[in-house]
Amino acid sequence: xxxxxxxxxxxxxxxxxVVTAAAIGYAGVRLAAVADVLADRTGLGEVIAGAIFVGGAxxxxxxxxxVSTAAQGHPTLAIGNALGGxxxxxxxxxxxxxxxxxxxxxx
Length: 107
Description:
With 107 residues, the chain is mainly alpha-helical. It is built from 4 helices and no strands.
């Protein structure tokens, strides 16, 4: 494996980085536009809709890690990841997006 990686020219991983960064940037812009439209259609407010999308997008890597490690026969790692990272992210988003008296959640 090391020989294979050593034979790859430097421009290949740099090009991969540029392409994936562009894809992430494009997806982020589209996600923001979709969140704005959904906020207007549902009446949730832009902050709430954005928090839901950001929460979902930031939770995806943890979900993929949990599913792939469970599929590879490492249930302890999958459960630890799900109970650790995903729970903390969800709790943080619940606290941040919970309504507070006198505080508007929409701008």
